[in-house]
Amino acid sequence: MSAVYAIENVTPKSHAPAARKFEVACSTCNLRELCLPKDLDPVDMARLEQIVYARRKVRRGEALFHAGDSFHSLYVIRSGFFKTTVLNPDGREQVTGFYMPGELLGMDGIGAGSYHGNAVALEDCEACVLPFALVEHLSREIPALQRHLHCVLSREIVRDHGVMMLLGSMRAEERLATFLLQLSRRFTNRGYSPSDFHLRMTREEIGSFLGLKLETVSRLFSRFHEDNLIEVNQKHVRILKIDGLEALLASKH
Amino acid sequence: MSAVYAIENVTPKSHAPAARKFEVACSTCNLRELCLPKDLDPVDMARLEQIVYARRKVRRGEALFHAGDSFHSLYVIRSGFFKTTVLNPDGREQVTGFYMPGELLGMDGIGAGSYHGNAVALEDCEACVLPFALVEHLSREIPALQRHLHCVLSREIVRDHGVMMLLGSMRAEERLATFLLQLSRRFTNRGYSPSDFHLRMTREEIGSFLGLKLETVSRLFSRFHEDNLIEVNQKHVRILKIDGLEALLASKH
DNA sequence: CGACCTTTTGAACGTATTCAACCGATGTGG
DNA sequence: CCACATCGGTTGAATACGTTCAAAAGGTCG
Questions:
Q1: Taking CA atoms, which of A246, B41, B43, B139 is between 20 and 30 Å from B214?
Q2: Which of B136, B169, B208 sits opposite A94 (nearest CB)?
Q3: A140 and B140 in contact by Cβ < 8 A?
Q4: Which CATH class is domain B170-250?
């Protein structure tokens, strides 16, 4: 496992092992339901905590990794929001997802040995570093971890298929409604208000994700506002009629 | 491993174990570079062949699995073409991919324990059945298999991101050009002509995949034909200027 | 051969984009 | 502290791209 030490360019001020170990204890992390297997016995839990090699702070606008960087680790978001993007040969950028605490980043790097896309912090963020060699090693010994890893990878594929559905066969207003409902659901899972939240991304980033131009996104927000479905004030959104948004999806072909 | 026997509803005329074992020998399958780990020693290869529990024939138009079917197996295509689709609550269908021999189907089922989408044969097909419990079991003991599985899952995610790029930020003609180039590349990898092939899917299915209507797809085929980039005759396509198609991607905005 | 499905093509239409102007919030330097 | 630049967001008007509706031709399969 000597690979571990070559794996990450950790920020200089990363904590010494002793201090770190306490700080990152997964067993007491309030995100553990999101990123760890359930029903783990204490022994396995202790082994699993060894996976978390370090944490990385990433400032707003900076990247956790870039496309092409050589792949060594997965990351679990501890705090903050990320966007992931891919870049066309001709320079166009496509946002492939928005990720929040407890979610896993970097799975696109396993196959080719280098990350396929970029992961950029939308605000100051912190992420747990999971050296993938360790993850693979331990998941051979802890079936629950193996299973969990496979599930997370599979769920990412399912998520992607949902995005394809959105991009391939929904109208603009359906896309934005879906987006808002999805955000609401994920905030709810994390104990935040389902109806009242702060968008970390710009209109342009939302547009890129949804396959729309920023002006279209802005107009849709205004329209939803006029229809009393939501209140919008810059980045703050309050959902007034969640069933009104859902109705947009069911209706008109 | 008693689970194995409950796993698949194999077609009645599936072969007896003895005959089957010879027939499906992975070590002599000409698709092995596509679906197996490289550099496997003979012992591991022999163990790995035990994974292939059976083969399933699927007739054109029939499904290898449906969305919601409980998940037990991955499938490797031995012959024929499949499309995968997801269905909206309101009934719209989105084609999420086209799959050809050597490619893996069913990865969307791992996370939830049931398949998320449908896999439908575009012609008479045959697929190898890989009971996932066996795959997980063996991949704990054969690191090369474990690695291979992770790579395949990751590559599927990368593929999906490519489709998002296509759907989210390309114009119609770029989408179709990308689609044709992609098909060409995959045929080449399988030893077929890069420029001369038979589309197994309808214009409507292509359209669904590319986020376009079938009429638009048809018009684009005609336009590419007029521009002497391709020849089209119903389902038969011949690419005349591969760099002409590539140029469509680099150009205008 | 006849029924049905797929494909092609045309014309009118509509949705989202483009281009442009303006506003408000935020941040910087004189 | 205010002037100014910058960035993100909103809104309007013209445009363009892809869709819709429709008709007809070509293939395929019983």
A1: A246
A2: B169
A3: yes
A4: mainly alpha
